[in-house]
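Hi V.,

You were right to ask for the full record rather than a summary. Here it is.
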Amino acid sequence: MATTARTTAAGPRQAGRGGRERILAAAARLFAARGINATGMEQIADEAPVSKRTLYAHFRTKDDLVIAHLRGLAESGATLEGALTREDTPPRDRIRQLFDPPAADASPARGCPFIDAAVEFPDPADAVHSYAREQKLRMVELIAALVTELGCREPLALAEQLATLADGAASRAMVLDEPDYGRHARAAAEILLDRALPAKQEQSERPK
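Predicted structure:
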């Protein structure tokens, strides 16, 4: 995701309402472009733009800001996990959407933000790493619920396999900057689903 640095020379710092939202939006842009650890709080304040006093009034520490950023992503439905909660879509289609390419304007390709955050905060006891782990465990739970609905007899095993495919595809898409890399994992996911689901379900849910 491209970002344009905004400094105090480009305009006055804004005060008043909306400061928290501007901070989170600025953090999202900078984290995506530079990484979390390479982005300082002063840079975020300049990008928002807000004073550092306002920044720390909303987020006491950088960890607080990072977790709020990740929580916002989780609640937005824009992550891999978001595809699994769409009640307007049949269960198998929700699983297939794990492997869909991102929006056309998402360049360069980005991996899973929760995995990215866990890599930057490698200590399993760190609050950021812990939050990322919670989201990846939730992903498996969501997939397990869907394949259970489809009639799978061993839903947790299948869910782990599908989550591994989705996370691996997202990571390789980012490394190779190939947004449509998920097509490879999707083909493997279809084979896993066909083998794990009852024959009647396979026929009714197979892509047309």
